UniProtKB/TrEMBL annotation, chains A, B:
Keywords: Cytoplasm, Phosphate transport, Transport
Recorded GO CC terms: cytoplasm
Assembly notes: Homodimer.
Keyword Transport: yes
Keyword Cytoplasm tagged: yes
GO annotation (BP), single: intracellular phosphate ion homeostasis
Function: Plays a role in the regulation of phosphate uptake.
Residue ranges of every copy of the PhoU domain listed in the record: 16-103, 121-203
Protein's name in the database: Phosphate-specific transport system accessory protein PhoU
Provenance organism: Nocardiopsis ansamitocini
InterPro entries: PhoU (IPR028366), PhoU-like_sf (IPR038078), PhoU_dom (IPR026022)
Location in the cell: Cytoplasm
Any single Pfam family the record assigns to this protein: PhoU
């Protein structure tokens, strides 16, 4: 009995890691869709989001079963509860990739991103990928030390977003209302994607140490 | 022992209802901040968000304790898990009110909303209040029937947002880049606020019936 139980707990982690893999793929394709006005990539991101939603649901069901059948306490209970939170964050990361893909689809065959902003958006896409890959490693290895790095990695995302907004607000900005809206929202979606990756890492810290990241950081 | 246990379960609900009350107040004040360029209101929304965060944390701790000390199954376990989800949604509703308040603060002493959009934004604010008040009633009364209405109430919010975006994209739109950004983001924050209220209602349906809203709706 205990064996199946621990296998089920491991399966939770495996599903979470799979979600980070899917979320990384989604944001990478969404960035391609956005930068290259690639309609195929956009459609892919939109339709493949279903897989992330399904995994989130599976984790929810599995967590519920584990709690109902067993009487998890302390560490195990924390693992189950934080897994639920992490699944929720990863599911929303998929949603943000979809939002970006939809911007690309709406402007197709034009590109939603003016030429002079392409490099910033590309950097935001890369940073988003880095954040979610790192979140996956951290979850997979139960590595609370590396988890602490994500907050700083995310500062870079926030700096990129501020840079993006500064360009839009520059008196030299000559693009129309649609471009202003698209860039504003895309910037926000990348930022939110990053925030959720940080939440995943924070939850991992709590899962492993039983402490909130900020308290754990002060001691570490 | 069982008495304390059921008191603790009731206390979860009471905290959730209190969160809907705070979230309603936050979004109402945020709308005032936005429409009247009211800096005091904006600051209030920002500083009072702490109360929502604290309640979310308290619900998390209480849920964890309940699961660790008792062995809740079926209905009770569902109540605890869905309470966690609802608290998360309500906490994020507070965040969206804060985002709106920060737009107001950033543009102060100017108003972020051009005169001809004031009525739409006011309607969005009112609809947001209605949604969260209804979510509170539904949670308080464990009323799965009324919970089904929120999805439709939220359609109205989506229509308002589309109306807002249409105005921005109208060739007659004469406002600058800042106004375009502010209105785009404010529209999104109200829409997300509404989405989270629908999630709260959906979770209530699941809490009470053990079925997802869509399945329950087909039978009802």
């Amino acid at each position: 009995m205990r064996d199946t139980y621990h296998e089920d707990l491991d399966a939770l982690t495996a599903r979470l890691v799979e979600m980070t893999r899917l979320a990384r793929h989604a944001i990478a394709r969404a960035t391609t869709a956005l930068l290259d006005a690639d309609l195929t990539a956009a459609q892919e991101v939109i339709s493949e989001d279903e897989a992330l939603n399904r995994l989130d649901e599976e984790i929810g069901k599995s967590a519920f079963d584990l709690m109902a059948r067993q009487q998890p306490v302390a560490q195990d209970l924390r693992t189950i509860i934080t897994s639920l939170h992490m699944a929720g964050d990863l599911e929303r990361m998929g949603d943000h990739a979809v939002h970006i893909a939809k911007i690309a689809r709406r402007r197709h065959p034009d590109s939603a991103i003016p030429a002079e902003l392409r490099s910033i958006v590309l950097e935001m896409g890369h940073q988003a990928e880095l954040l979610v890959i790192k979140a996956g490693e951290v979850v997979s290895n139960r590595d609370a030390e590396t988890a602490l790095e994500l907050d700083e990695d995310d500062d870079r995302m926030d700096r990129l977003r501020r840079k993006l907004l500064k360009r839009i607000l520059d008196p030299g900005w000559s693009h129309g209302v649609e471009a202003t809206m698209d860039v504003t929202l895309a910037g926000r979606f990348y930022e939110r994607f990053g925030d959720h990756a940080v939440h995943v890492a924070d939850n991992l810290v709590y899962m492993v140490t039983g402490e909130k990241r900020k308290d754990y950081e002060q001691e570490a």
